[in-house]
Structures are given as structure tokens and as C-alpha cells.
């Protein structure tokens, strides 16, 4: 079943998450129509290879053309229209930057895998539960309802101001008419009656002025209360969700809803401002003793301007945190002289601001860091915000060609930096701009979440650990001295984040048993870890007992192993991985001989091994574990082929494959058959070698077990076996003994 087919079977709450990251950058129609083709391409590799990305984009457009031909024959007018629009959009948007669409599609596929993994987990973790709090959802609905009510009130007040203007014009006309009469005419009865009517009209004008000012005051008060309470909380919650999403958590949404609220409030405030200006016009044409306008209007206008300043300042946000396109799963880790991207948005979407706001990017501006290192940004660091580049038409700007460059220090401070010093230094990318609108000039500033600067890719794992720890432990966006005294983290939350590393990076999270093993490894014993506090040093700086590496280095090596060598097996759920030797034997001891499981090595970085259960002639159970395979050996032969071809030579020199069933009882070929690189075939003739008469050879993993040993004595590397030797073996052994030939 394709990944997209699995996605379509998810519950509605997970489908809503999927819906959030499909837009005009990569329309869902294309994902649906080209599901199998899209999943068969290596978009992640293309995101770092412009030539490959160019070819994939061309092939994508060809696939869209083929779909257009198909739907044209079916005369599906709506789909024809949409596909033509999408093709034009894709070609125009990515023709000059094909790697960008490779990054987008790669990210979408990865998010799908993360959501599928989350849906398969029986229980949500504490962090994810907090992000989906029903109280938060209720507040979101209340904010939207109140914003809509405020907008309606402002519009109704417009009508009151218009009525007041009409009433004053009528009063002004009638009053001037009387004033133009001769003195003798002013004493007539009709004129006296008219004067009484004008006095009544003046009283009505006074009442209406006070009423309009009161209504304006109520609208301003409602906006003030909403901004001070619920809207501020909503924005802070979105920023917290963004932090969690950056370290692998659920994809954050809600920014479009916030934009709608901010925009409506800004429109309402500008509408109130125009109403106050209109009252000022009315004041210049007519005033009287006790007139409320000159008393109340200045205070109301000052409050409106104050609210507009605050609204604009809060609306300037970093929509997508700094990230190197080469490492999309590791945002906020930046390497010197390597380009990174960052996207900003102004949540107040007004057409008058399109291309009028120029944003400048700087690094470590007005921020005191604990580092002696200093950086500058190279590349295009000033750009205009516009509504054309974003798929949803938001007012935004994306910097795509920024590079951090380290400035040479005359103090020579680099020599004093320890191995963890660089990866615990936090820096900030700052952005500033100015909005000039309707006579207002507002200076805006915002900053990214803290970033870690590295100069060598070998520093990336520890730098990413710092990013995880910071964003897990605090919602303070600018605590540059955080690692002077890093707080402890709740173990249950940390384990949840570690599971996210696997779901976001390698497509499948960790279950409760796997997390329990990690908890034991961190704590050194079986504990209840719900409320346990783990230190930063224990996580990333102190070596594991008896080992020369830390917990995080060990875990990161496993992630790298999965990603590069056993990804399909991991996604299928056939790698138990995190299980101790003691638990391994408990699981296998009552199983059929030949039952095996796969686990990650605890002593070798980035190693994977398998252990199988066997039964001696006297009925005793014995276990055999092969020497862990690392990335060097797995580069020579795929792990699935190793499991298929693995042989053990017993004391009588009869080679056999001891691996029969994957724990608990899955036939080996049923589990791994689809991942074999080729099917068993007949031995090639010498002339088929294709290499100037050489006899071709194949690699077969072989171990030797002595009768008095319970483990392979010296598991060898992949040993070459010539077809002639293999042919002799086939003559003396049945197909059930030698299961495969390569």
C-alpha cells in the first residue's frame, strides 16, 4: 500500500494535520494523482543536487501533462482547469529554483510519515496533549467570534458618524438660512418656531456626538481587552507550537487564523481612526459650549495609535525559522558559509503595504551572547515584503541566500573553546523594518529563535542536541545565556521528543517498550520516569557507563544508520532496535529455534546486530548474536540481503542459514522478501562475468560456530564465494539448507 493510501485512511484529526501543509507550493491534487510516482523519487537527494532537482521538476511537469491528456479524454472540465493552473504555477514558481520544490516535496513526505507514525502510537505524549488542549481550541473560537463582533461594531459606528454628519449639515443649512434673514423677519412667529427646532436639533447633535464617542470608546476598549488577553495568548501559543514543531513535533498551524484576526483588528482600528478624523472635521465646522469632541477625541486618538503600534509590532513574526536546505530536519543549526533560508510574515495583510516594507536581516544585533565569536551575514540581507511569493497571498518575505561568516578575532579566542563550547553558544538572527501608513510611522523588530553556529559538519549532532534541549525546556525566545546553567528536563517529555526525532527523520516513532529501554539507558536502572528530571550533562556531555561516548552521540549514530542503510526495514516496523541483551533473551527463550530479532548495538556506535535462539541436543536453549554490522559493512551489502544470505558453518563444516522467523513468528522471507536486492538465481557461467573472462564472485556473510560455544566464535566480514564453490555446495545440500543464491 502506498504511503498516500495509508494517509487517506487516517482519522479526521490526522487528516486535518495533513491538510495544513498542502497548498499552492505543492498542491494536494498533484500529490493525489501522482502518488506512486512521487513516492518512488528521491526528493531528499534532489534537494541538495540542482541537476537532479532540474530533471525531477521536468519529469514532474511531464507527469502532469500526461494526467492532463487523460482527463481531457474524460472531459473532466474542473480537473482540466485545475491541472492547467497548477502546471503553470509549478513551472513559473520553480523554473529558476528547482531545488526548492524538491525540499518542499521531501518535507511533505516526511510530515506524512510523521503523522502516520503518530497515528500508530496508542498514547499521546504530554507535550502533544498540551498542544491539543480543548481550552486552547475554545479560546481560538472565542477570539475569532470577538474579532468579528468588533468589526461589526466598527461598521455600525460608521453609520452613526454618517448620520451625525448629515444631521450637522442640515443644522448648518437651516441655521445659516436664519442668519441670512433681515432683522425684522427674525421676529416672526415662524422664525421663532424654527429657532426652537434648531435648539432641539442642537441638543440632538450634542447627544449624537456623545453617543458616537461612547461607541468608539467601547470599540477601542474591546480591542484593547482582546489584544491584552486572548490574542496575546494565542500568539504565544502559536510561537510555542512552532518551537515544538522545529524539534520534530506536530506540524504547527493557526497562523492564517491569526493573520485574519490581526488584519480585521487593524482594519477596525483604522476605521475608528477615520471616524475620529471625521469628528475633527465636524468640530472645525461647528462647536459649542460643552462640546464633547475636543475633550474626548485626543484621548481616543492617542489610544487608537497606541493599539496600532502594538498590533503591528506583535504582527511581525518569523514564519519559518532559519534552516539550511541541506539539513531540513535540523533547523536553527547553521554552518558558516553555507546558505540558509528564513521566512517572515506580517500578520496584518493590507494591500497598501505590498512591496512597501523592506526588511533588513542582521545577526546578534543588540544581543549579548556568551560567545567571543562574532558573525556577519553575507548575501542579500534586505528584501521587500510582498503578497505574490506566498501561496496563500500573505504579506511575507523569504531570505534564501543568506550565509553566516565568522569574523576573525584579534583575541584568538578559538583556542579556548572546549568540545562542547561551540555547540552551546546561542546566536540570534534579527530583522527590522519600518511601516509608514496613513500618517503613522512604526518601527518593527523581531528575531529568530536562538541558533547554533557550526564551522564543521561533525559539530552538527551536538548542535542539534542544544536546539532540542533549549526548545524543550523554555519558551523564552531570546535567552542567549541559557547554557550557562541549563535547566533539567522532565524525562517523560524528553522521551516524547526523542520519539519525534525518529518519526520526523526516519518515518517511524518509538513505542512504549523502546522508550522504556532508552529511559533505562539514561537512568541506569528500571525507574518510573514520568516525573524524573534529567540533566543536560547526563543527556549530552557525560559518557555512558563503561563507554567512550555520550547517550546522544549513541542515539544520533543510530538515526544515521537507519536513514542511510535500513530505512525501509525500520518503517515497516521489523527492527525492534531498542532492547537490552537481558530482555532479548527473555523474549526469545520460548520461541521456535531459528527465531531472531534485530537490535541496535549498545557498545558500537551506529551498529545493528541480530540474535537467534537455538536448541541443543539435550534440549537446552542457546542464543547466538552476530558481531554488529556498521555502516562500512552495510555499504558493501544491503542488510536485507545479509539476513537472506547469512550462513553459519558448524563444526562439521555444513553451512546453513539459522535465521527462520522474525520475532515473534513472522517467516523471514515474508518480512524481508520485498527488500531483497535480487531474487535467488542460477549460478552464472564464467563467461557471464562480463569482465574479460573473470569468474564472478558474490558476497555471502559467514560465521563459524564451534560445538562448545554459544556465540559465533569470530563472525567474519563478507567473504567472497565463487560460483564454482557455490555449485559444489548445491550438489551436496538441499534447497532448504541453502535457501538462496546470489
TrEMBL record:
Gene3D superfamilies: EF-hand, SH2 domain, STAT transcription factor, all-alpha domain, STAT transcription factor, DNA-binding domain, STAT transcription factor, N-terminal domain. PROSITE patterns: SH2. InterPro entries: p53-like_TF_DNA-bd_sf (IPR008967), SH2 (IPR000980), SH2_dom_sf (IPR036860), STAT (IPR001217), STAT4_CC (IPR046991), STAT4_DBD (IPR029839), STAT4_SH2 (IPR035856), STAT_linker (IPR048988). The keyword Nucleus applies. GO terms for biological process: cell surface receptor signaling pathway via JAK-STAT; defense response to virus; negative regulation of developmental process; regulation of apoptotic process; type I interferon-mediated signaling pathway; type II interferon-mediated signaling pathway. Residues 570-672 form the SH2 domain. One of its GO terms (cellular component) is nucleoplasm. One of its GO terms (molecular function) is DNA binding. It is found in: Cytoplasm; Nucleus. Keywords: Acetylation, Activator, ADP-ribosylation, Coiled coil, Cytoplasm, DNA-binding, Isopeptide bond, Methylation, Nucleus, Phosphoprotein, SH2 domain, Transcription, Transcription regulation, Ubl conjugation. It comes from the Eukaryota. SMART domains: STAT_int. Belongs to the transcription factor STAT family. PANTHER family: SIGNAL TRANSDUCER AND ACTIVATOR OF TRANSCRIPTION. This is Signal transducer and activator of transcription. It comes from Balearica regulorum gibbericeps.
